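seq:
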Amino acid sequence: MKDIAALEKNVPAAALTYDIDSVYNDFPILHKPIRDKELIFLDNAASTQKPQIVIDTINRYYQEENANIHRGVYYLSEVATRKYEEARETVRKFLNAASEKEIIFTSGTTDSINLVANAFGREFFKPGDEILITTMEHHSNIVPWQMICEDTGAKLRVAPINDQGELLIDEFEEMINSRTKLISVVYVSNSLGTVNPVEKIISLARSQNVPVLLDAAQAVAHTPIDVQKLDCDFLAFSSHKIFGPTGVGVLYGKEKHLEKMRPFKGGGDMILQVTFEKTTYNALPHKFEAGTPNMAGVIGLASAIDYVTSVGLEKIHAYEKMVLDYGTELLADIDELRIIGTAAEKSGAISFIIDNVHPHDIGTWVDRDGIAIRAGHHCTQPVMDRLCIPATSRASIALYNRKSDFDALASSLKTIIEVFR
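struct:
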């Protein structure tokens, strides 16, 4: 506990002015008792809770505005179309993309990465080409590339990490060569909390003229992202990770790449003209949005982004770092507990193991105290293999979590240690 006092003295001003009570009260589910206990939700890396304004936006759409878009000439369709396309502009501004043409709505991060794997990979990869990823990737940034490699003859290469869960950047650099056709890396690891040096990665890629895809699922709700400043070629994230509804995601792609890519899915709305002899594809961004989209979800995502923007991502980042540092020191003080993932730069998540207690037992136990955490391999089985562990327990934070949440978690963990001892 010796470092807690030091942490309190070095809290950024932005964190001190953060109105946590107001933010906490914006989320109705947090006031729902769980097993007669106050809900403490620490599974935000899996999915975040929704503020009332997002819930109201989705309800209003279905109650007052529901209609299919881009096709109807009647009032409701015009309203729904306008709100859907306004949501695209909201995302564009949020990421500082150069054009709305660069914002593709998908069903989530997984769908976005699969879109690039199929529309970019199938078009441009050939036998002997290489795709470079890292050991800490989520399965959704591994499996699509394996599938494309099987189909094209390309090769998947994996950059190593150290025991702290940090990318070995020198070895990563050495793996970039003339055969590297794409680099696809996670911005923030969902299982370790590691923040990758994405600016450095992109700079190294630029020196070899290699495009870069960033999996920003775990970054988008925690830190400001400017795709033009980063100069990434693609970036993917999910609505449900940033307090929006499930079933919606975003793919940002530079227009020069998207123009050259063939559509991943065929159907309605991604066409200009169809005959049995030939189909002409629609213009960007619509050529990648086949079929009836999740209109309510997209509009709900825009509402979630507006909410996060109103709170302020800089303030959120500073506040969450304070909570993360506090929780890290608190858990590290438990002798039987070992934190997995101790990178110098971390965000959002603390994974840990306890001697002689299975992570699933830990998750079940703390649930009795109203605390929701995740237990398992977190869709990062190669990470677990690298660190020689089967699974971890993970507490992951969001803008509504408080230091007292970790007080409660630490207390519950100490009890389970005594019971299992």
